[in-house]
Amino acid sequence: MLIYQRGDTMNTINRILYIIVLALITGILVTPGFSQNKKKDASNEKCFECHGDSSIEAKSDRGKKLLLYVDKELYSEGAHQEFYCIECHNNRDCPEYYERPVEETAKIEQRDCEECHKRYFHEEEEEYKKSVHHTEIGEKFNCTSCHDQHTMTPTLTEQNVVFYDVIERIRSDNDQCLNCHTNEERYSLFKKEDEEMPDIHQSHSFLPNAELHWDSVRCIDCHTPMDRIEYHNILERDKSKFNCIECHTAKSMLSEKLYMEPQVFNDFKFINTGFFDASELKKRYKKAGINITKIIEEQEKEEQEARTPGEEGNILNKYLFDNAYVIGATRNTFIDYVALIVILLSAIGVLVHGGIRFVAARLRPFQAGKVEKEYLYSLHTRIWHWVNAILFLILVVTGFNMHFADIDDSILPFDLSVELHNISAILLIAGYLFYLVTSIINGNIRNYMPNFGEMFTRLYRQSRFYLFDIFMGRPHPYPPEKGDKFNPLQKATYIVVMFILFPVLIISGIVLFFPSIAPEEMFKYPGIYPIALVHYITSILFVIFLIIHVYLSTTGDRVSYLLKGMITGYHISEHKKHGNDR
Questions:
Q1: How far is Cα 530 from Cα 512, in angstroms, rounded to an integer?
Q2: Domain segments of the chain as ranges
Q3: Which DSSP symbol is given to 476?
Q4: 312-323 pLDDT tens trace
Q5: What CA–CA distances, in Å, run from 103 to 53, 67, 99, 108, 365?
Q6: What does the radius of gyration of the chain's CA atoms come to, in whole angstroms?
Q7: Could you tell me the CA-to-CA distances from 175 to 7, 169, 419 in Å, in that order?
Q8: What is residue 367's DSSP assignment?
Q9: How wide is the angle at C-alpha 494 spanned by C-alphas 488 and 496, nearest 5°?
């Protein structure tokens, strides 16, 4: 009897164990399906029925307007497109969430960004804690104050490649800042009592062409630390950078911030940086036989070479060159050296020529001729000439100061150089147009027209005078006279200077002043860079012209005669004219 009872008890226990095991197996098999059904039930479509309507409105208990509208299309392109709404908006993940009215669910706990991102964004969190946003505003300010969790775009696509448009990045990043700092309603959410929203136009008035800077540089490039990359550490106003030299030099901080990343970057770029969990990615590429470590090393090598001055045709800051033109930072060192050598050779040439003239004059017996005066230079011509000379001097000094802004002990502050350069350029253009129109009206332009008859003979005779006859004290073969003020070499030079170089200088300068009108690409380079290069080379040619022009003003019958003529209007000579063939 006892045995029977024991056996019966054992059978009962076995049946119970069988049922438990069967239930466990069934649960394991059914759970994925249940989860999938639950996920299916968790579709975002039900949420968008209300929250996809732009007219949706609601207020909190304290009367604060709640931002409940979510653009469905932007959400589908955003970084969180694969997430279900209730994954963040309801930790309990209850299906009834959809059915309950807003009033009952408004206070349901939402997931904080840090719950997911803290593991991979701990550095950003530490930066933010030092930021003025945290120290001055406190708990009212959080991730979503800047980053719209519903519409922010992903850094990586499913293909793991994003085409990087620097202008689009600038616009996107600056919009996050300007969304508060130009919006009174939004700014009021974070400001202190009785605090007024600063006028960003006034606070940035020190910038030459502030609007252009906002289109070309991000707020965070100046308002975060210069010595390290901490984009979430927004500095106090007094600690932000106001020094133009930080950007406009060969060591531009933009090459370490805005332009430090290549135009196209892929998921390899962020592996081992903590930016996202790369474990699955590593497994996938390892299985595919891709050596991630080698690829990362090659990318780092390419970046380092691109930042090395002298590489790629001696172009400083190749990343800047690839994406934009920044005065003083994007330079071709080869052209700089060639320009310096040619300018020095020109200066040495006139000094040697002048020295030989001086010695030859001392060795010749002095013979004073009969002084003759002839009124050749009108008042408006002389005014234009001297105003031009002053403006060119200002343009050369300020242009040099901007192009070589990293030289210690600069002649002028960078921002002042920009202002003076722009003002002088405008006056120069106005003066050029005035002179051109008046010269056409009064016939002065005929003085620039060459006499093509025996042109090469005349050029030879004038060249021989400067290279040989002038040392012997012989008279000018073609001295100035009414209707023909310039000798053959002057005419040839002035035609190039006045009607080719001058227009090129003006047009390229206008494009640099209004870069939006520049073509996107020229000769496979960003359009603004070739134009800036043309402007720079043309300026160098003008500098060389000025050196020679000033020296040739001493080659009259006396050293001061030609200079006096441009002051008084009277050409002074002591020699008889040499022939009549002009």
A1: 11
A2: 2-38, 42-111, 114-242, 375-573
A3: P
A4: 444 555 545 555
A5: 18, 15, 12, 10, 111
A6: 38
A7: 79, 10, 28
A8: -
A9: 110
Phi, psi angles (nearest 5°) of residue 581: -80, 110
- Sequence-distant (6+) residues with CB within 8 A of 159 are none
More reliable by pLDDT, 77 or 428: 428
CATH of 375-573, one of 1.10.10.10, 3.90.550.10, 1.20.950.20, 3.40.50.1000: 1.20.950.20
Q: What is the identity of the amino acid at 54?
A: S
- Residue 309 structure tokens: 């001055």
Encoded tokens for 242: 């106001």
Q: Which of 163-167, 230-234, 347-351, 402-406 has the lowest mean pLDDT?
A: 163-167
Token pair belonging to 573:
């000579």
Token pair recorded at residue 404: 């070589």
Q: Which residue's structure tokens are 């006045």?
A: 498
Specify the DSSP element, H or E, that contains 570: strand 570-573
* DSSP3 helix / strand / coil % (the chain, rounded to 5): 60, 5, 35
The token pair at 518 is: 């520049």
Kindly state the helix (H) or strand (E) to which residue 312 belongs, with its residue range.
helix 311-314
Measured in Å, how far apart are the chain's first and last C-alpha atoms?
Answer: 148
More confident residue, 39 or 236: 236
**What is the token pair recorded at 269?**
């770029």
| Strand, helix or coil for residue 44 | coil
Hey, what are 291's tokens? 């050596």
* Contact in structure between 392 and 501 (CB atoms under 8 Å): no
What letter represents residue 46's amino acid?
A: K
Q: Which tokens is 368 given?
A: 């004073």
